[in-house]
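By convention, the token line describes the chain's fold. To illustrate:
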Amino acid sequence: MLIISLIFLTGYNNFIHVEKKLKINYFLNKNIIEKKIHNWKSFIKTSSYKYNVDDKLIKSVIYAESSGNPYAKSNSNAIGLMQIKPSSAGVEIYRLNGKKGQPSIQELYNPKINIDIGTAYISLLQKKNFLVSKTKI
């Protein structure tokens, strides 16, 4: 309550102005992304064609989620290049492909399988209209 009172006493507009000054913009160099994901280009191309998902979107997801590290694992147990959670995206894509269960951890560490499942999931989201549009990156 004291903090809120201090904000109003010093002027709310001044507080907001300080917050805006802390905003940082990041710009990614295309060459940096390409170097990080170079080893996975053939898998990206195959999945892009198979699921009709823009390859630039796939590359961006890989870079953002794992920086191209196929052994990446998050605190929430998202695994691999595209940070797939076996119990959510993995289950949905397995079900879509007529399989029961979920992908194993070993499967999700495999770049080819991870990219395939991740791209299939992006395609599924696009078809369900969770993504506003196929964004041009």
Residues 26-127 form a domain with the Lysozyme fold (CATH 1.10.530.10).
